[in-house]
Every structure is written in C-alpha cells, then in structure tokens.
C-alpha cells in the first residue's frame, strides 16, 4: 500500500463531505497499519480489515459485506476503489460499484467491467461527485 499524488487531498475533501472510508486488503494487519501510520491517514478509515483478521480474501466478498453491514449502509451507496482484478471481482461478488485506479502498480485486464476507470485522484473525485444515488 502506497499513497499516491492527490490521495490525501481527496480523502480530506470526501471525509468533509460525509463519506465513510474502510480498507479491505489482502495485506497483513501489521503492514497495513504501518503504511497508514507512515502517511498519517489512519484517522480517515472507520474499518481496516486485513488477511490477518480471518476473513476470506478477495475476490470473496466477505470483507466487503462485513464492512457494509457494520457501517449500516446500503449496497447501492457503497463504492469500492481498487487497483486489481481481484478488487473488481470482490466488488462484483458483493454487488457494489467499483472504480478501478489504473495509476497504481497493478493492472486490471479487459475482462473487468468497472463502473469507471481513473488515472488520477482528481478524476476519481470527479466520478464520485457525479454518482447519482
């Protein structure tokens, strides 16, 4: 997990707008927490679920469903932002929208059909702000 240009600004803006963030990662808890603390962004996330937490990992939707249920949000309002085919498949298996970020080191393939594909965090912000619920 790394932070990308514009990510912090988008997190701040969306948090101020009332969005709730969670992390569902196949990384172990120690690595995930270290990364969040390194970039001082852990306070933006209501849930952090990792492979260390005894959930089935992506593309299984178990972590996503747990987060959605415990935050008390509707699946229609949920949105997953990912950078791999497994992120997309987990979102698809959970029946939620997914935005794939192609600026990250891992790539998706042509089999995936995400809600949107973005290259920058400004593009991501524009897509999120234009979603009609």
Structural notes for this entry:
With 133 residues, the chain is of the alpha/beta class. The protein contains 5 helices and 5 strands. The strands form 2 sheets. It has a 3-stranded parallel sheet with strand order 3-4-5, sandwiched between helices. Strands 1-2 form a two-stranded parallel ribbon. It is globular. The model has no long low-confidence stretch (mean pLDDT 90).
Summarize the structure.
This protein has 133 residues and is of the alpha/beta class. Helices cover 37% and strands 16% of the residues.
- The total domain count is 1
Strand element count: 5
Query: What can be said about the biggest beta sheet?
Result: 3 strands, parallel
Q: Give the neighbour order of strands across the main sheet.
A: 3-4-5
Report the CATH architecture: 3-Layer(aba) Sandwich
Percent helix range:
25-40%
Number of helices: 5
Structural classification: alpha/beta
Rg from alpha-carbon coordinates: 14 Å
Helix and strand run: HEHEHEHEEH
The CATH C-level name is: Alpha Beta
Average pLDDT confidence is: 90
């Amino acid at each position: 997990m790394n932070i990308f240009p514009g990510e912090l600004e988008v997190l701040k803006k969306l948090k101020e707008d009332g969005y709730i963030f969670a992390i569902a990662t196949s990384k172990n808890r120690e690595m995930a927490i270290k990364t969040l603390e390194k970039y001082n962004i852990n306070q933006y996330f209501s849930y952090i679920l990792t492979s260390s937490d005894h959930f089935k990992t992506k593309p299984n939707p178990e972590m996503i469903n747990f987060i959605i249920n415990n935050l008390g949000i509707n699946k229609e309002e949920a949105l997953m932002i990912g950078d791999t085919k497994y992120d997309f498949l987990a979102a698809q298996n959970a029946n939620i929208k997914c935005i794939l970020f192609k600026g990250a080191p891992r790539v998706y393939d042509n089999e995936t059909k995400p809600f949107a594909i973005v290259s920058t965090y400004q593009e991501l912000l524009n897509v999120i702000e234009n979603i009609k619920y």
